[in-house]
Write a structure and sequence with these properties.
This protein is an alpha/beta fold. It contains 10 helices and 8 strands.
């Protein structure tokens, strides 16, 4: 089985990279993609835990924003982490997350919620990328909500009055950065309407022109109708369809390998990188 989109403690997952690899092996996954948000911090540990017969697709889920303010997540896979241009953008995005978090907390304090940045940082693993899931965990710890899911459903979704966007490249710029680093670019869950505003179908044209390699068609946050529409987009532009769990550990309901990518599609995706970077054992 091939699951190309999972997260570890290096960003907002609840498993260490090593634990994630072990769980994937136990689940029968043969190709695992580690896509922590705006970071490559988990790559080394995951590689060290790789089991015989398994392959790792190392990458990052890059935060993007369209010109009209729509949040987009771009999976950058199989890129050269030594590429300074991409590394600098990821670093800038990570640094901006702290400023954004302070602003979100300020809005919540004004509404009467007793939460501090220290409460949020207490939920963050050393070196991890800060994000709203850590705020959700702090809200759970303070007994303001019962779970991460409740926190996002009630307070932290993209249409919430507490939501604040943060610095991020456009999807087209992110794609160009990934391609410039020799990797492949797959847009994650573009029609996940429950998360907030989704991309316009017309916007795929400019992304494909920028070098988009694929679309995450199968994902729990997209309906069957949405997935079918994305398959038609894939066919229209001659790009690649993927399916992934977007697993985060105990923080979300997503289960490893609940959606997977076909072997032929993965082979086509890997062939689009400028070098063989899949880690195998």
């Amino acid at each position: 089985m091939i699951d190309l989109h999972t997260h570890s403690l290096a960003s907002d997952g609840t498993d260490t990279p090593g634990e994630l690899v072990n769980k994937a092996h136990a689940r029968g996954i043969t190709v695992l993609g580690i896509m922590d948000h705006d970071t490559v911090a988990g790559w080394e540990e995951a590689s060290n835990y790789l089991r015989p017969g398994m392959s790792l697709v190392l990458g990052s889920e890059i935060s993007c924003q369209t010109l009209d303010g729509t949040s987009v997540h771009m999976l950058g896979m199989l890129f050269d982490k030594a590429n300074t241009e991409l590394a600098d953008v990821l670093a800038t995005t990570r640094d901006n997350r702290l400023t954004r978090m302070n602003r979100i907390i300020s809005r919540m304090n004004e509404a009467g919620f007793q939460i501090t940045i220290e409460d949020v940082l207490a939920q963050l693993a050393p070196g991890a990328t800060l994000g709203r899931p850590h705020l959700a965990d702090a809200l759970v710890a303070k007994k303001i909500v019962a779970s991460r899911d409740e926190a996002f459903a009630e307070l932290l979704h993209n249409n919430s009055k507490y939501y604040i966007s943060h610095y991020s490249p456009t999807p087209e710029d992110a794609i160009k950065l990934i391609k410039g680093a020799g990797g492949v670019a797959v847009i994650a869950h573009p029609f996940a309407s429950l998360r907030g505003k989704i991309v316009e179908i017309e916007s795929f044209a400019s992304m494909v022109e920028a070098g988009l390699d694929g679309i995450e068609v199968s994902h729990r946050d997209q309906s069957q109708e949405e997935s079918q529409l994305l398959r038609e987009v894939v066919a229209q532009y001659g790009i690649i369809a993927t399916g992934s769990s977007d697993y985060h550990g105990t923080g979300k309901l997503n289960e490893l390998a609940e959606f997977t990518t076909k072997p032929d599609d993965f082979e086509a995706l890997e062939a689009r990188a400028n070098a063989r970077r899949v880690v195998r054992k």
